[in-house]
Specification:
heterodimer, A: 39 residues, mainly alpha, rod-shaped, B: 575 residues, two-stranded antiparallel ribbon, two-stranded antiparallel sheet, 2% strand
Chain lengths: 39, 575
Amino acid sequence: MSDLLMLALVVAAFAGAAVYAQFCDAITRRPAADRETER
Amino acid sequence: MTANGWLQIALFTVLIALLVRPLGGYMTRVFHGEPTALGRLLGPVERGIYRLAGIDATAEHKWLEYAIALIAFNAVGVAALYALQRLQGVLPLNPQNLAAVAPELALNTAVSFTTNTSWQSYAGETTLGYLAQMAGITVQSFLSAATGIAVGIALVRGFARRHSHTIGNFWVDMTRALLYVLLPITVAATLFLVWQGIPQTLDGSMGVTTIEGGQQLIARGPVASQIAVKMLSSDGGGFFNVNSAHPFENPTAATNLLEMLLIFAIGASFANTFGRMIGSERQGWALLAAMGILYAIGVVAVFAAEAQGNPSLAALGIDQTPSALQAGGNMEGKEVRFGTAASALFATVTTDSSSGAVNAMHDSFTPLGGGVLLANMMLDEVIIGGVGSGLFGMLLFAIVAVFVAGLMIGRTPEFVGKKIAATEVKMTMIALLCIPLVILGLAAAASVTGPGLTSLGNAGPHGFSEILYAFTSGAATNGSAFAGLNANTPFYNLTLALAMFVGRYFVIMPVLAIAGSLAAKQIVPRSAGTLPTGGGLFVMFLVGVICIVGGLTFFPALSLGPIAEHLAMVAGRLS
């Protein structure tokens, strides 16, 4: 397997991790009901 | 089981307990930015690094900024380690003239050490030159451990802060973890290891004439410096193929004890740091007590299983009782120097943490002994765990525990003054579920496909245990090998790299999200309805939650591997 393929895998993996972080961020933006519970 | 064995286990346990408060207090001061004994020496170095790198040490990150900085930093780490391995044939400090590492093996190794896993599909002394070992493997041991500490501290800040939109500065946390925690301890430990006989040289392998007149090459190199940080960082990747079973990696009883202490030192002390930073040391002790109970169960179970020996050998009339001439018990795959007790203790310590260093071959443990080692890793490495990752793993289980307890008593769950709402529970479940998904999914795929099965050294339940152990070790970022499985194939190199990547970053992201969410909340004063989380009842509840979650998730897989093998062995049906 070539270095280029390995590099592509690494870039894809870390890009995936960044997208996953954005996904977590979307969930973390707390809905109003959540804030109400905290109060 | 001998009194000597129990004494060794007790001595190690007491020493770790004594280490917790001083090191926990020191780390608290480091991450609070308070003056420390090393501040006068290292302060200018720290400020120089910030100036050189253009870091504003006073600026803090929101959790997503913290996460993106971490991802970017680790991506560069993988690329650099990959390049060092691929280019080692033309780089200096390669006295054995070792060739470039194959691409998929280089990728596996780069991901392995950047994720603090240290899974090794290669033999160190015959694969990596000194530059790759020093500038690649050793540097990543430092950096991956500092990454874990940074994430752990960020989560602790989430619990400690109120109405804050930031969780710290990733670059500052990394720098302080490296300069004030990892480097000083590593330097001191390296000097001790050199004193005990571990080589530290840039000379190549040494040719010697054996007693029988043959010629032998004895591998050596800059070993001591790598071993010190390998243990302290709970990374565990050996300079030599047989890791800490090699006399140049672990020459004496004193180095064996020190190496185990280094593995647990930061992980155990981190619980105390947590307690101090949230203003209640008692909470830290509660988490450490839960870790301690699980550790005690594990070490007793493994020692008992190994000391009992192999019934199949007993049936053949082979003496396995301890005496002045032999350690006794199941000595297959164990160093005579260490015996069953020190091997069982080391194996428990290494699988409780995310170390992966070994001083005995786990593949040769009894089925129950090996099964406990597997189970230790399957519990998400929360029994002390990795540097930083052990604490945040335990805190995830604490969130599950207070959530379940909240459902049982009909109160909104809260932990150390923070209300645990739907957001935190969702993030916790995502973090906790991705590891079993990867372990069981990839182990199942490897068990039914040609590329997965052709690497096996054994058939039947033991063969399945070898596959299950490999993916568990990878996803739990442990890195120890069960052996008996040829993992240096494109299939295993790539699937294990995937397991390690998901096991590290797909847990860290939700953990940082939880930190950000908690930091923004207010701290709720204790009331009559608050569930006490600093006492014995909560500790036992937490242990129960960990065992039930781990047990329910992995029991079917364990039944097919070590449990089936144990029953076959007891019935005398093991071929």
